[in-house]
## 1
Amino acid sequence: MASNAARHTDVTVIVRAVLGAMRMTLRNFFRKPITVHYPDKERAYPDRYRGLLALVYEPDTGEEACIGCRLCEFVCPPAVIKVEMLKSEKRNYAKTFTLELYACEFCELCVQVCPTDAIVMLKSFDLSTRDRREMLLDKDRLHALGQQHQPSWATGNRLRDMQGPPRMARPASAEATADKPAEAHAKTEGTEA
Amino acid sequence: MTVASTTSRVEVDYAGGERLTMNMGPQHPSAHGVFRAVLTLEGETVVGVDAVIGYLHRCHEKLAETLTYAQYPSIASKTDYVAAMTSEFAYVMAAETIGKIEVPKRAQYLRVIVAELQRVASHLLWLGTWCMDMGGALGGGATIFLYTIRERELILDLFEALVGARLLYGFFQVGGVRYDLPAGWIDACRKTVDFIDGRIDEYERMLEDNPFFMARAQGVGVISRELAEDVGISGPLLRASGVPFDLRRAAPYSSYEDFEFTVPSETAGDCFARYRVRMVEFRQSMAIVRQALDRLPEGTISSRPGLKSVAQIRIPKGETYARVEGARGEVGCYLIADGSAKPYRMKWRGASFSNLAVLPLIIPGHKVADVVAIMGSVDPVFGEVDR
Amino acid sequence: MPAWLTPFIAGFLVLNAVILIVTYMTLLERKFAARMQSRIGPYRVGPHGLLQPIADAVKLMMKEDVVPTAADKPVYNLAPIVFLIPCMLIFATLPFAPGLGVADLNIGILFFLAVSSMEIVGLFMAGWGSNNKYALLSAMRAVNQVISYDLPFIFASLTPVLLAGSLQMSEIAAAQEGLWFVFYPVIGQLAFLAFIVSTVAAENRAPFDILEAESELVAGFRVEYSGMKFALIQFGEYAHILGASFLGALLFFGAWAGPGPEWLGPLWFLLKAMVVFLLVTWVRWSFVRIRVDQILALSWKALMPATLMLLVATAVVVVWRTDGV
């Protein structure tokens, strides 16, 4: 456009634009930097943060929550979970449970399908190591991680309940949701918000 | 088309001029990903561009045949990883179209909110990287880059509160969305959108009328209207060349017809016109987000709730092509379903793949320095190009 | 002390002072740029990053000296030194206080301007000897640009010379007794503006740094240098900028003039040079760069005629003033 081209060679326009840009940089000079001094300080991670994966114990009985049903193994897109079921009289367990964290996509699908809220994601991501084999997590390691860090809000039943009207509670999850009515309120608050 | 060898050579052509073959990328600070452009130079002027792609090919389409409808949306984010929400949108929409699955109104509005926020975030990244390409990683370009990334982080914080992840989400699900809004998200979203609105004013003030910026962007990389319509580009490139085509207006999906927004278009077709179109798109996307937040209906967020099993979603036989208006253009997914839990065939139409086709036609005649400016304004993301 | 020893000692002291200042100038630039970009800059190495330049120097000294096989060895190896020498030599004629300097020549400014242009020889040697297309392209652009902008640089520097009536640096500083030349009505400000623009361009700083153009040419003529040779080139660049900042402070801001006792003079000089340097840095971090043909057009079509006319106008004003007096 002729008028536009002429405009930006006009000296007053140039001077004003140049000074305007410099003023913008100077203004940011006096703003507080947004740097978070990690690792001395950490930023606040939201409730639903998808961090490391871990296996948890049932809150009331202290038993392993995982029943070895292998639903997480089947749903995992990069197929990083391998489970072997151990049958027992009252309930099943997982004989071995390996999770290849170095290949994990952190998509949270395994958490979503778990019927007993056994696998959760944590609010911590800090597992850097120099040896990739340390990121092949076995069952003991997964349980240890679950004890070390704070889990995020999302568990299987909560995620499934969020997607539709609350369904008939399953035996394992009934204890979980019955003990914590506050979370149920928070969930409904969320959907109304 | 033969691929020129990587060693450079100087050829003398019949007209007596000297030609230099220079390889730009795949490892290059401003190749926007992994892109190899074999440039033929005469002095400082580019006379030929041979574009080589495929360095990021990860077999998405084959992968989709081995993963079910429940698993693939998380993977779909990785095509256009800068605007992940719109990438997942196309796949999920295709499956829903074949299976005639209704999406609840609240889920549609949530999808719109998230897609428009993603468009703002993607354009912020575009502005930062384009200015950095033109201005240098140590210099004024980096300043604008850090500012826009600072604002983009705010949007990513919103997504993190909603989904748990910052870049690749897995938010969409066949039948609706996976996550509902947490408490306080709407207010946070409104505050963020207002804040970013103010900051975009600042960027406009830094760049408009700026003689250095205008000299780099005006008249550079002109795509004429005929060329734009012939080659099949879409998105901001098309709208900057005088064709006001926007899928959200032309073929509305997911309740876009409920919202009022203007479709920006410019006629000049140069880098500056593309810049103007995207700047207006910022404002329009934020307007859509505000309207959607105001009118967000109650209800469920998925018509196939409670995903519990990997093969839970089965789509009957059929095929369709679903398109969404992504940040870079038309993102399309052609899906052939065969009644099982996995698609028979899935093809991505990557917006950047079609947009890149215009490069060998508009770059010749410009200087080497303009190549980066033009590539930046075309805004390719190579996850979409190579899939 | 024998009289012939004094210049050696003075030179030694000045060079060491320059090395120290240049090292910490890089840190100043990084912190300043960081604050303009909403971040902090070097922070963890030493308190608030104060040991960062030392860490960088140690790192560069420890790096392997990689020499490309096909490089033109003598040219490649000599280039950093040939680049560095003029950049250090310009400090010879700068007086840091009345009577305190290495050699206060009566053609001081002429020496400064002439020697500072010689760095392009080393620059081109670096680009040529690297046997790298990118380096050569960048070196050719650099020679083009520096030569084009040296002329406005010289004319802008000559304006205060006309106002002071002498080429000797200490006399120019002394002539600013009552009024710093930057405050001289109209002519002073225009000359300062031209000086800043041509300094930024002649030193290949953004927005005129097309020769580095990290996003296109990946470090330009320095691309094949690593380790200590790279450090020498960096050092030469920053020393040149420092020298030009000192020149700006001397020509326009009255050098060592400032409140307080006389021995504070060099400190004021340094402070003013840092102000000029920060101004150049502020410009650097605010603008995108323009293409090489646009840079050259700006120089030959706009800046050169403007500074030439400014020089003629200054001459007219000076003659008119002295006639009036």
Note: The helical segments of chain A are 2-7, 11-29, 71-75, 109-113, 139-148, 156-163, 171-179, 181-192.
## 2
Amino acid sequence: MMRKAAAWLRRRAENVAAAMVAVMFFAFVVQIVFRYFFNFPVGWTSELSVVMWLWLVLWGASFVVKEREEIRFDLLSESAGRRTRIAMGFVAATSLLVLYGASLPATYKYVTFMKVESSSYLKIRMDWLFSIYLVFVVAILARYLWILWRLLRGGEPDQAEATQASSAL
Amino acid sequence: MNLASPFSLALGTIVALSLLGLPVGHAMIAGSVLYLWLAGLDMGTAAEQLLNGMYTSYLLLAIPLFILAAEFMNSGPIMDRLLRFCNALVGRWRGGLAQVNVVQSIIFASMSGSALADAAASGRLMQTLMTKDGRYTASFAAALTAVSSVIGPIIPPSIPLVLYSLVSDTSIGYLFLAGMVPGLLIGAVQMSLIAFLAKRRNFPVEPAVSLRELPGITWQAVPALMMPVILLGCLYSGITTPTEAAAAAAAYALLVSALLYRSVTWTGLYGSLLTSARTTISIGMLIAGALVFNYVITIENIPKALAAMMKAYELSPLAFLLFANLVLLALGCFLEGTTILLVIVPVLVPTAQALGIDPVHFGVVAVVNIMIGLVTPPYGLLLFMMTKIAGVPLKDLVREVMPFLGVMIGALALITFVPDLVLFLPRLLGYKG
């Protein structure tokens, strides 16, 4: 049941990510057509697409890309034994939780402080635009708490698969 | 360097966390937060650097758009026509299908900016074609697809060159032009090696396509072959900005595949958008981490200190280029290339400039080098991908890759020590460097 719900949610998160790429692409097409064919430059399109880019990366890192799909260095963990691997995963997850957790209050302060500014064309308050970073930090904290909990119950860390990492090189 | 300084501890943490298996982007953000903490700075600075850096790097929007363009072009009907065109050109030579593999990579390189995307796009198809009736061994076919995919991001468009343009403040237009000759050179050395091996190993010849059929086959491939013309035309005529040129190329690819080749379905369209999203997210996280960590590197003045040190040694530009190449090649054996490009290369750029090395030349050398890193064992993403696609052991694949690695490093040396090879085209179109 839980697994099904999680898979459903992940697919919806993917829908959102794909839609963001579509909006970005569409905004560019509108921008080129307006300027080149109607000689009428518009500014909101580039702002919209840059917002999509920022949100796509942080939204996707929070909800779309699984840990084992991310670009990481795994020569060492792959050659280690099971117990060592669990210990390595434990140290990595704890360090991340401590450091991301420690930065959370100052991060919250920075993002909420940005309410004094608005974006140039769409006039969206910057604290709203940047709030995705808070979502990101909280989602990553939750993810690594879950990973830690699984490790403590004796589960192994996910094995990375090089061909799944979506490196853009 | 003081080992207990905030910077050393932060750097140590990033390396340690990456070795422990944490995604590299997270490791860089976490290490930088540690630096801010220990140095008594505002920890909100990490968020500030990341958000403002991402929000103002407009050029990076070209990355999802280039991936989208290649995805639209990567469909069965288009690939078939391109392969038939390549076969008509070089199939009649000894080792013809092997030559087709390289020529196809060169053509696909002008539509796509990613080597892994190239290998994923044509890998399975080329593998089936080349191993049918035992014409080539599976490991040779897989090795060839891996090494020929390296050309993808050297010939424009190129995602690594976009990243270099970001970290070095160099014009993306000139970088793209500069990649052209080196990309073709890599293709040429690979084709020469195949011609040499073809005689010794008695590779098969494909049935020659008659001259009468050639115009028809070419005509069918023309719409796909026009894509680089659209992209570079938009870029150099000044009609669009570089990012818009990427969007125009994607729009053209979508139109061609939908209207001319009729190969677009809603499911396929959604799949293309999602692939583009996923790749953008993964690389975006590395960029995010690098933005935060590069801020730390800058306040610590590392690049300038290195430049001063190298100058004090009175290193000649050639010696420095050789040194940079060796460092990058060695790192490429173990590290993922994007990380090298976003973290190590920016540290080297100021030294290169202080020694009078042209930044466009240096960028192309670094990118060619990092691309070669994709096929160097033990850690080479293209090798991993091809062992999976072709189902051959890594050991056999590496043995077949080695001779190609040799000629490609030869080509890299030529590109490194003869800057005119790289800078000739950009200068022709107005580059003052």
Note: Chain B touches chain A through 85 residues (CB under 8 Å).
